[in-house]
User: Fold these one by one.
Assistant:
Number 1:
Amino acid sequence: METTTAVKKYTFKDFTSDQEVRWCPGCDDYVVLRSMQKALPEMGVNKEDVVFISGIGCSSRFPYYMSTYGMHTIHGRAPGIASGVKLANPNLSVWIMTGDGDSMAIGGNHFIHLLRRNIDLNMVMFNNEIYGLTKGQFSPTSLIGQKTKSSPYGNTQPPFSPGELALGANARFFARIGGNNPKDMTQIFIDAHKFKGTSLIEILQNCVIFNDGCFDEVTDKEVKEDMQIFLEHGKPMIFGKNKDKGLVLNKLKLEVVTIGENGVTQEDILVHNAKEEDKTLHQMLVRLEYPLATGIIRSFTDVTLEEREDALTAQVKANSKFKKTDDLFFSGETYEVK
Amino acid sequence: MITTKTILQPEVLEAVVVRFVGDSGDGMQLTGTQFTDTSAMFGNDIATFPNYPSEIRAPQGSLYGVSGFQVHIGSVEISTPGDNVDLLVAMNPAALKTNLYAVKPGHTIIVDTDSFTKKNLDKAEYKNNPLEDGSLENYRVIQVDMTSMTKEALKDVEGLDNKSITRSKNMFSLGMVYWMYDRSLEHTVDFFNKKFKGKPHLIEANTKVLNAGYYFAETLELIPNAYTISPAKMVPGTYRIIGGNTATAWGLLAAAEKSGLELFLGSYPITPATDILHELVKHKHFGVKAFQAEDEIAGVTSAIGAAFAGDLAITTTSGPGLALKGEAIGLAMMVELPLVIINVQRGGPSTGLPTKTEQSDLLQAMYGRNGESPVIVIAASTPANCFNFAYEAARLALEHMTPVILLTDGYIANGSAPWKIRSVADMPEIKNHKVTEIKENWSPYDRDEKTLARNWPVPGTPGMEHRIGGLEKDRVTGNISYEPKNHEEMTHIRAEKVRLVENNIPELKTEFAESGDLLVIGWGGTYGSLHSAVKQISDEGYKNIGFAHFNYINPMPKNTEEILSKYKKIIVCELNAGQFSSILKTRFPKFEFSQHNKIQGLPFSNDELVQQFKLLV
């Protein structure tokens, strides 16, 4: 629903709370916080209409550092609470701030059902492939063999790929972005807000204490242009420092090709269509290890739960003879005692 | 159509209990409901209880596929569906076998002899036909070839298949029972006209069979006389028959309208609470937002979110679901949001006895959360007053900014009784603590002096942006605080807040003797059983017995101690191993509480209570 009141002008300072930020120095969480504070003034939404809901974990401290409405809830359950907030007042811009453990371990059930329903709200998942707040156990995204406090000889549980899980649950909007990339992150937050339906943004978030460098191979400034492909709707899937690498479809697989070699021209490169309903190609992009797909991978506009509910409610209201509860209570099989 | 009695002057009875039993496909619930509605309109007081098999479509004729409906009607006050039955209508051998125990010796059983085939007798595990082997000689058995007579009655009606014909035999039995108790057929015929609108052959068929049963009973020499039950003395007004779960749902609707808030329900299906969800989803015309969540936890958390955003928020469940919701209820208590949790109790522990009744979630409601986590706990006590207590749960949650657990149970939730309809205009006011005006040094935890309820600024209100959460907060600013003394003080504030609710609830009342030898104490859904047992003893001449029934458990009414001190002995009766009595013993250590407990998934029977109380007076 569009806001009806005039939108005030804000700067990022308007969204900063008076609480001292207590994340570890050097944590990517600071980048996310600042990107959000910069994105909000660009969203065209009044501050009083913004709500941050979190579960438990390092990332879930987020609402305390914003000057908007917020609730720091219980482990894994932010999606339920956020859904209730949004269904109660569809005028609000609702954000779930969560981590890999909060959303995909203890809150895994809520995560998939949130995406299935497509309520118009946003979820930012800080994926650091580790439990930080409990000081270093493996999470549902930790790699096989990863040594952690609860897997001293190496993790034996295969990980989830958040994107694959999300698309499997029919996510309409999925974006992935490095935790060291505030510029694109800010824009993705703005786009997620504008998108009608549930948006999921996976942040590749470095944990400097318990899993330092886990994404360096793809997010380090030196390598990121060669190791990531930043997808933009309507643009060719080209990457690399020299903008000479691209993706083509070879039979049923995505293949990296070099423009100018083996007769490959720019015309041969796939063009990204994030808005396509068919998610086959989005799933391939999500799975791709080299290059790692970042940016908005999928952004398919579908009917939201609120739209369905509103339409039904309007229809029922128009056809109902019950305007007040008295109409119901005194209807049907009643009788008089004298 | 027959509307007046043409023969013998019927014998007048005070009350009668009728049970209709048959296969789950035999339409016994409908038959029972029709008899109930007709008797209600005649002016009787009524209590009913359905008894379904837990299997959805149990094999025909099997012992575990028997479905029943019991109704107790009277010219006197009726407070339970009754223990033993005066009339059993059994549509097949399995129904007879599983229900014979309940028939009072010397009383009447109507059977459909056509269903007593070798096959059905085998399914019911009868070695011999009980209609022939003399095993029923202590009863008055009326053998009726109901299936064949139904077929005969319908031979000229066109457009009916065999199945529809056989299915309408329940109306033959209803016709017979109408004659036996001097009831008019009018209401049921009206019902056919509405239900089968546009299907004249079905209207004709059902009306014919109903009349056939009625005429058959009239001419049958096996029925020596008919009975009648005069109208009961009831408070004048407009009534309807209402089931406990429907009454609960309607109480919530009334509370939403009165408070001017939108109603949000977050729920997950669970027996025996699901009918509240079924009822509320119908009422989109009142703006009800009913959200069927992915699990019990999402049911309660979505409600907490809706409460944060300013709705009247509800979650409904039964015992296992309450266990799953515990952590989230603790959050609602900690962030001090209004939330109504309805627990329709069933037999426990674990999956327990899902379709049976019990009162064994009381201590879970009181203490089933981590940390010091007090909430308001109240209990409804009859099918009809589920309406009042659902309304009351909403009122207390909103006025005190805290979760309220309302306990009902399978017995009153599935039972039904006359309800004198309450107009919303006549219900008590409901205040809430929403704020929009910003004061200096404002905090979300600013409290009302009298109740300690915090204010309720909701998202969308400019200038009142704030954060709340499950971490301990500073008493003044509401910011996170790990300060030791502050935590202790906050713990006391949260407890005191619930204790102060005693100023906003009615005093405990006693019935029968105001002081004396014995005080019978009960709570929740056992009101009807306890009331009728104490009444019986009192009517028999024991005038020193009093009865106090609790609807408010945490906090208790202010005058509780005063009431307790007026009797020599106290007995606490509960359908559990002694949960309320353990609370009373802790709270009032100077009194001695004896106990009467039952944990069989069944309500108290009148006889067991009367016997027990007589030992003490």
Number 2:
Amino acid sequence: MVEEIGTTPEGDIIINVGPQHPATHGVLHLVITINGETIKKVEPHLGYIHRSIEKMCESLTYRQFIYVTSRMDYLSAHINNHACALCVEKGLQIEIPSRAKVIRVIMDELTRIASHELWWGAMAMDLGAFTPFFHAFRERETINDIMEETCGARLTMNYMVPGGVMLDIHPNFQKRVKDFITLYKSKISEYDELVTGNIIFQNRMKGVGYLSPEDAISFGCTGPTAKGSGVSSDIRKLYPYEVYDQVQFDEVLETGCDSFARYMVRIREMNQSIRIIEQLIDNIPEGDFQAKTKAVLKLPKGEFYQRVETARGEFGVYIVSEGGTTPYRIKFRSPGFSNLSALDQMARGSKLGDLVAMMGTLDLVIPDIDR
Amino acid sequence: MNNEELKIKISELLPTATFEEGTQWLTINVAPGDLHLLATQLRQDTSLFFDYLFCLTCIDWKTHLTMVYHLDSTKFRHNIVLKSKLDISSPAIDTVSDIWKTANFHEREVYEMFGVNFLGHPDLRLLILPDGWEGKRPMLKSFEDPINMIRL
């Protein structure tokens, strides 16, 4: 694959991290140039899990292509489906029932918490603490059980369809979500005791992986990566969709610009998600969960773009339609792809051991980057 | 700025630009040769300040390729779309990676998938496709994978 392994004429050493490496959380390959322990360059090599989803979608109908998108950012499967469903609805110009809107937002926020929980456990594990992983999974399993009951799946839900949601919520849904909120609130302080307040952890995170606000915007960073640099980029606030303009929540911003700031954004973001769910869970309107749509969907000729906020940042779906039953071209703007491109900038000049902390706080999901 | 104001402002910057009607965001068609100059002005003008390139992609129309740039301003929160038609036999356009750093990766992706040559790009190599992938551009409509598992 890469022939230039060894030393450069300047005496720097080139090493490989990945494609099979526990800290990359998937098959990401980094070629790193180091001088002593100091990183001079980080070069990502992608494509180990590239499935050409965009090309695949060109031969799938508007109902079928949504299932493929769960396999991109599998930790934000609901939100990916949501973006695609919204984009198709924008093309069809249909209004979905308010019950479906509220269910969609609750599911999105549960997904966001589940995703951040997994990130938190994995992040701590990367830095050598194994116990937090089990704490995170204890709460995450509860969300997975809720998903399983209503959607029938634990990871790739395929629950959002054009026109609403596939099935109505399970009768237990509201009670179980409320139980989860109680559980979460009783356990969240453990997270801070275990990891956030830990002095070793803080020393490994603070001042590591500096990303200036200007660079964050220029590199197209979104989500917690941008918010950790104080850049307001929450699509839920800036370009609200569904009922996000009717609920109270704060956009979490930190100004540290380092790994610890990005860490704190995610921890605080989970609390905001809980706040959104609390406002909606008792106020799910009665009525249909799906609008009446034709069996075969045909989008009019034109272009449609939908932006949503996933757990990792801004996800965009760009559909170019020629009026047929399948899209002419689809582009998925994945947050991880742009966030990863900033890694080189962050890592230059820092120590090799800190790279794990930087990669951890970028929250990379490799299928989302490769698509 | 709203779309009408943007339209007037951009017409002043580049009189040859044409506008599309009935689109989600203001869509501007520019010649490939003018794109870099206009993009620089869009980024630097204090009343426009398009500092965030949130999507960069290409569409194969069989007769020609179209480059599409989605721009957002973190200060004013107005959006525009830039489009530029490229010749299909030898597609080439100036890079915008010196204006928006995110374009570096996105242009590498478009280069390998569509074969568009980005003039002045600092590091135009394969990003996703394996090394030694020769000539074939998988996202072009003319490309047919011999092993297509989802042909319906």
